[in-house]
Task: structure prediction
Amino acid sequence: MPVFAHVNSIVGRLSRMGTLSEYLSESINPILTEIFSEDKFVFLSQTYDEAHFGNAIADYEHKNFRIRVIRDRGQLFIEIAPKDNSGAWYWLPRLFEYLNLAEELEFIEHDLPCMRRQLQFLSYHVDQVKEIFENFDTVKFDLDKFEQKKGNEILDKLMRQSKAK
Result:
């Protein structure tokens, strides 16, 4: 089965799953295993908070970086960080944008189809992403500056919209 078809079928099951454990065993683990067949991810930890909308976090480690899958109030996010877990987590679509691989708007939704596209896109560009985290000390300042610039752009846009009302 082609990787994209496999990703579609596995991630598509998420909408019928409740707990993070079910989600991990049925969705993320097989996707990461197949997409990154040569460079394995190791499951590190998970948290699940049923009292707060079923919010959940799962962390995985790759030889060059970490990935975090977040379910927050039913929305899905993928973040990525250096392996040393220095606390510098980046929203995966923002990292793609920093690398000039994609525009943020391509991944603006936080639903199953968008998550599927992000994981597939990561599989196509894993070498560029690995390089960022292999050389993290040299790119961290620029990456943080880019993140701050994008955050300021969003705030400016919201302020302009607020004033227009």
